[in-house]
Structures are given as C-alpha cells and as structure tokens.
C-alpha cells in the first residue's frame, strides 16, 4: 500500500494506493490466516461490488466453489448525512450464514458490514483493509488504514502519462 496526498483547493485528501499485485498478495495472506483459524467453509458470500475480486481469489485459495453474493446500496438519508443501507439482492444460498465466509474489500464506517452480518449472523466476516471505525465489524483483516485516508483500489485507477519534473515546473 502506497501513501499519497492530493490537494484540492485548500483541502488535502490522503490516499492509500493498492496495486493488483499488492491486492493479490494481501488476499493470499488473508486466505492463509482463514485456513489456520477455521474449518473449511461451505461457501463464500461476496459483498458486491468491492468484495467480488477478493472473493474470487479467496475461493481459489480455499478450494471453495460456491460463491454467493449480496448487494447492498448505501444512500444518504433525508438529512443528507446518515447512510442507510438498502438490500438490492439477498444471499439466498447462505441461509443464516452457518459455514459461510462473508468477503468485502474494506470496512470503513462499518455500516455495510454490520448490515450484512445482521442478515447472516452465523457467518465469519473477512476483508482486506479496515479503518478504525469499521474494525469491530470484521473478524479478520490484513492491513489497518487511517480513518481519514481513502483507499484507491486497482479497479479505481489507470496508468497514465506523468510529465518529467523538469517540464512540470514553471520557472
Ligand atoms: O464500512 P462502510 O462505510 O459501509 O464502507 C465500506 C463499503 O463501501 C464500499 O462499497 P460501496 O458501497 O462504495 O459500493 P461498491 O462496493 O459497489 O463500490 C466498500 O466496497 C465497502 O463495501
Ligand atoms: N474505494 C473506496 N471505497 C470506499 N468506500 C468506503 N470507504 C472507501 C475507501 O476508502 N475507498
Ligand atoms: Mg462495497
């Protein structure tokens, strides 16, 4: 994970950049921990969309072919601040979650994780990255990220031309 700061006007935003390689390594690290600590899972529930690629990697490593999905949309409440999750697709194959692993890319406020855990109370929850507010809602994670940092996933980015230093500075 590589840190960075972007300045927009007077505001600066902290970023943590994750490459495909790093994401793959982190997912394999998570798989090893899950194998050590749990019996084989009956299936995986990916929280779409961010959990889909981590779930595919974990499914391969854990030998798990049954991949269910749950789709949750968070939208602003009437006050404009409160985020209320809305279920767009239920994880029907997972019952109450017994024997299942829920997978997401990260927990931030923890709202999504808490909501999905209520639907699947017996499942284990794992994600790659966790911010402090979300940590209590995940059983496993790989790397902690500061609350004020925005994680940029490989699917959020594209390689692009960057001007050499001697051409990007005006005298
Ligand atoms: O802990 P929280 O504050 O709920 O945030 C974490 C969630 O936010 C992101 O998903 P998002 O809702 O942006 O949708 P996406 O996965 O489809 O991109 C991320 O993939 C997690 O699912
Ligand atoms: N890509 C991305 N999505 C998020 N959703 C909630 N927090 C984050 C974050 O840090 N990065
Ligand atoms: Mg998501």
From TrEMBL:
Residues engaged in binding xanthine: 108, 151
Bilayer disposition of the protein: Peripheral membrane protein
Residues that hold GMP according to the record: 83, 108-112, 150-151
Keyword set includes Membrane: yes
NCBIfam families: PRK09177.1
UniProt family annotation: Belongs to the purine/pyrimidine phosphoribosyltransferase family. XGPT subfamily.
Cofactor(s) listed in the protein's UniProt record: Mg(2+)
Residues that bind guanine: 108, 151
Catalytically driven reaction(s): GMP + diphosphate = guanine + 5-phospho-alpha-D-ribose 1-diphosphate; XMP + diphosphate = xanthine + 5-phospho-alpha-D-ribose 1-diphosphate; IMP + diphosphate = hypoxanthine + 5-phospho-alpha-D-ribose 1-diphosphate
Stated name of the protein: Xanthine-guanine phosphoribosyltransferase
CDD domains in the cross-refs: PRTases_typeI (cd06223)
UniProt keyword terms in alphabetical order: Cell membrane, Glycosyltransferase, Magnesium, Membrane, Metal-binding, Purine salvage, Transferase
Highest taxon in the source lineage: Bacteria
Cited InterPro entries: PRTase-like, PRTase_dom, Xanthine_Guanine_PRibTrfase
Self-association and partners: Homotetramer.
Pathway terms, separated by semicolons: Purine metabolism; GMP biosynthesis via salvage pathway; GMP from guanine: step 1/1; Purine metabolism; XMP biosynthesis via salvage pathway; XMP from xanthine: step 1/1
Organism for this UniProt entry: Bombella intestini
Function: Purine salvage pathway enzyme that catalyzes the transfer of the ribosyl-5-phosphate group from 5-phospho-alpha-D-ribose 1-diphosphate (PRPP) to the N9 position of the 6-oxopurines guanine and xanthine to form the corresponding ribonucleotides GMP (guanosine 5'-monophosphate) and XMP (xanthosine 5'-monophosphate), with the release of PPi. To a lesser extent, also acts on hypoxanthine.
GO biological process: GMP salvage; IMP salvage; purine ribonucleoside salvage; XMP salvage
Gene Ontology terms, MF aspect: guanine phosphoribosyltransferase activity; hypoxanthine phosphoribosyltransferase activity; magnesium ion binding; xanthine phosphoribosyltransferase activity
Locations listed in the record: Cell membrane
């Amino acid at each position: 994970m590589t840190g960075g700061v972007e300045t927009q006007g007077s505001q600066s935003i902290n970023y943590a950049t994750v490459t495909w390689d790093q994401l793959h390594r982190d997912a394999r690290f998570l798989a090893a921990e899950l194998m050590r600590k749990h019996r084989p899972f009956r299936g995986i529930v990916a929280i779409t969309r961010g959990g889909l690629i981590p779930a595919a990697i974990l499914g391969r490593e854990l030998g798990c072919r049954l991949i269910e999905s749950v789709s949750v949309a968070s939208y602003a409440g009437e006050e404009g601040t409160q985020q209320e999750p809305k279920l767009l697709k239920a994880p029907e194959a997972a019952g109450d979650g017994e024997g299942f692993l829920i997978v997401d890319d990260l927990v931030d406020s923890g709202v999504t994780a808490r909501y999905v855990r209520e639907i699947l109370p017996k499942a284990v929850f794992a994600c790659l990255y966790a911010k402090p507010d979300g940590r209590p809602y995940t059983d496993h994670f790989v790397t902690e990220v500061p609350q004020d940092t925005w994680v940029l996933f490989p699917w959020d980015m594209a390689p692009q031309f960057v001007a050499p230093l001697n051409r990007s500075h005006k005298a």
